[in-house]
Amino acid sequence: DEEVRESLRRRIFVYIADSVRSESVPVPKPPYERARDEFLARNPDRDASKFVDAKAFHDNKLKDMNVLGGMNTDVPYSIRRTSASMFASCMFIYESLHEQSEQAVVRNGPTKRLEVYRTEGKGWGVRCWDQIEAGDFVCEFTGEILSNDEAATRCKANDHANEYMFELGSSGVNKLGCLLDPMKHRGELEENVDGFDAERYLARCEAEEKGEEIDEDDDRQIASPSAIRAMLKAGGVSNDEAMTGFELDGLRGGSVARFINTSKEPNLFIQMVCTSENWDIRQARLCLFAMKRIPAMTELTYDYGTLYQTRFEEGDADEEIKRVGASGGYVQTLQRGSR
C-alpha cells in the first residue's frame, strides 16, 4: 500500500486491483477478530480456542447481515439471475468467507475479459469480449479511500479531482450517522438526498418495523435507523464515528471501471458490497453488476445520475457539489466531467 500511495503522491496513474486507504483512514478490524476479542474481554478466563471458528462465525451471521442490508437471504447472489430487479435494489450485500463459494464473487475478483477502447465521440469506454449474464459481477471501482476533509482539499486544489470522486455510503447519504437521528440532521439529508422527507422516512421505517404494508412510492433503499445502527455496530463503528464519511478517489489510480461511460439506458448498476474482512459500511466496496444480459463487445455503461446530466453535460456545474454519491442500485449525485 505504501508503494501505491507513493505513486499516487507523484501523480502517476496506477492500476489498483484493491482500493488503498490514505494514512488518515482507519483500517477496519475483520468482524471475526473483533467479535473474538470482545468475547475474550468479557471472559478473560476462557481459552480463545473455545470461541467459534471464523467460517462458522460468518455462516451464522451472514443471513442476519444481508437482511439488514436489504437482501432477505444468506445467499444473495443466488437470486441475481431470476430476480435482477430485487438484487439491484439492495443497499449492502455481505459476502461469504468461503473463497470457493458462489457467494464470494467480489472477494474472488473479476473474471470477465474487459477491454478499454476508444469510442466514437465519448473518449475511452469499456466493453467485454464475452456475453455477460444478468446479475453477473463485472468489476469494482477502486481508488484511494479518503476522509471528507482530504477529498475537499483535493477538489479545491485540482479542478479535475472531483471528476472521479465517489462519496461512499448509501443512497446519497455519506455521513450515515445522520440517519440515526434524521430529524436533527434533516437539513443535511434533504440537501444531499433527492426528494428526502424526514417525516415520511420515519413513518415508512415505523410501518416497516411493524410489518405493515408500505407505499410502493417510498424509497426502500434508505435503510431505517435501527438497521443502520445494527450494521454500524456489526462493523465496529460507534454513533459518533458514523458522522465521519469517506470518499473514493479514482483520478490517479483505479481499475477499468474508471473508463466506463454514463448512459440513460445503462446495462450496469452500482452495488455496495461488504466482504468478510470488512463490515464497516462506510468503507464498503463499490461494485458494478449487470442489470440484464449484455452481448459480447457491447459498450458497458451505468447511470451517473440526473445531477451529473444537468450540471456537467448541460454546463451548469456547481463548485459545491461535484462528487458522486454511491448507493445500492444507482448513483445518487454527481460523478465526473468530460475526459
Helix content: 25-40%
Largest sheet: 5 strands, mixed
Note the total helix count.
9
SSE pattern, N- to C-terminal? HEEHHHEEEEEHEHHHEEEEEEHE
Low-confidence stretches: 316-325, 327-339
Protein described:
The protein has 339 residues and is an alpha/beta fold. It is built from nine helices and 15 strands. It has helices at 2-9, 31-42, 54-69, 84-88, 148-157, 186-192, 198-209, 225-234, 306-313, and strands at 14-15, 20-21, 92-94, 114-118, 124-128, 137-140, 144-147, 165-167, 246-249, 253-254, 261-262, 268-274, 285-290, 301-302, 324-325. A five-stranded mixed beta sheet has the order 2-7-9-8-15. The chain has a four-stranded mixed beta sheet with strand order 3-12-13-6. A two-stranded parallel ribbon has the order 1-10. Strand 4 (114-118) and strand 5 form a beta hairpin. The chain is globular, with a radius of gyration of 20 Å.
Entry summary:
The protein has 9 helices and 15 strands. By secondary structure, the chain is an alpha/beta fold.
Features:
disordered C terminus, 16% strand, four-stranded mixed beta sheet, alpha/beta, globular, five-stranded mixed beta sheet, 339 residues
Secondary-structure blueprint:
Elements: H1 2-9, E1 14-15, E2 20-21, H2 31-42, H3 54-69, H4 84-88, E3 92-94, E4 114-118, E5 124-128, E6 137-140, E7 144-147, H5 148-157, E8 165-167, H6 186-192, H7 198-209, H8 225-234, E9 246-249, E10 253-254, E11 261-262, E12 268-274, E13 285-290, E14 301-302, H9 306-313, E15 324-325
Parallel strand pairs: 1-10, 2-7, 3-12, 8-15, 11-14
Antiparallel strand pairs: 4-5, 6-13, 7-9, 8-9, 12-13
